[in-house]
Each structure stands twice: as structure tokens, then as C-alpha cells.
Amino acid sequence: MIERVVRNDEVVGLIPICSTILDLRISDLHRRLGTEGPYQSSIFGFKPSGRLTPSGRLSGLDNVYIVYDHSPMPTIVQSCRIDEDNAALLSRQAKRRHLEVSTLSSLYLKEKALEEEYPGVGFRDSIGGREAYVLGHRVAVWEVLEVYGEAKTVAKTARHFRWPPALVRSALAFTKEFMAEVNKQRLAEIGA
Questions:
Q1: pTM
Q2: Do residues 52 and 34 lie in contact, with contact meaning Cβ atoms separated by under 8 Å?
Q3: pLDDT digits over 22-80, tens only?
Q4: pLDDT at 149 over 90
Q5: Which residues contact 72 (CB under 8 A, 6 or more apart)?
């Protein structure tokens, strides 16, 4: 994510930010940009006032809507072309979710790549955010893992759900690769 630093209605710099924006030390970046002191930041369309504290931390950004709350990770910029109708659709969806178009595009691209890698696994909104589930069924992948834990074999798990074993193997492969996320989804759903 990028924070636009604005002074006198002019963008004077772009600063990479992470989810822990209130603890982010950026005094050196502000010093280089000449933006020490009051400025406005614009994240996801909001324009709250912000000020650097003497320790170099941001304060006063309590109106910022943070969507991505995972640990920061390195990213690269990829570019692609889409037709106008799809761009408008993506823009409407991003606006509804209070996201930047690039953030939503990145989410959709990641999820589609995972769907290709793990056939039969899809993504949907749930109580704990985005959740992996078995396409064509209402079963979350963490539920497949729980049944497998009791059944102890792919064949018995497949019989339980009346699915082909390949679908169970795909869901289990996904849970093995993304165990932390799957456990987070499970905890959010059952409230434990």
C-alpha cells in the first residue's frame, strides 16, 4: 500500500505503508521529502489530518480504513490491460468494498491463481474475511480438514461428503499449504 503525502494540495511524495500505520517509523522519509510537520495523507480515498510525533511516528490518523491487516510482504508491480466494461465493474466492486482498484485486482488475481493451483477450491466472504471453500458445495476447507481428522483417510472423507477423492485431496493440499490462514478462518467461524 502507498500513502500519498500532500502539502498545499500538491502530492509531494509517496511512502510505502503497512497495516501498523500508527507505529510506522517514517521520519527519515518525511525528512527527505521535506514534509515534516502537518500534512494530509490519502489512503483509500480518506483524507485525515496527520502529524509526526517527535519520535517519528504518525498520529491523528484514526479515520483511516485499513483493509489489509496482514504482516507486510514484498510486492512487485505487474501491469495488465482490461476492457472498459470490466474496468468499470472492478471499480464499482472496489468502491463497494472501500478498496483501491489495485488492491481488489491483486486479491482477485491471487485467489484465481490459487483456484487454478488447487482445483475445486474457491473463495467467498465469511464472518472472518475471505474464506477458502469447496466449489459447488457450501463446505469450507477447514471443515474438510476436521472430517479428515476423524475419518483418517481420504476415501472415508470422500464417502462422508459423497465427493470424488480428488476434491478432498485438493482441499487437504490447500489446508496443508495455508494452515495458518485455514485455522484463522476456522476460529472466526466457530468463535473459539
A1: 0.58
A2: no
A3: 333 444 444 555 555 544 433 333 333 455 555 554 444 433 333 444 555 677 887 88
A4: yes
A5: 18, 19
pLDDT digits (tens, 9 = 90+) for 68-93: 445 556 778 878 888 999 999 999 99
The residue extents of the domains of the chain are 2-59, 76-117, 119-192
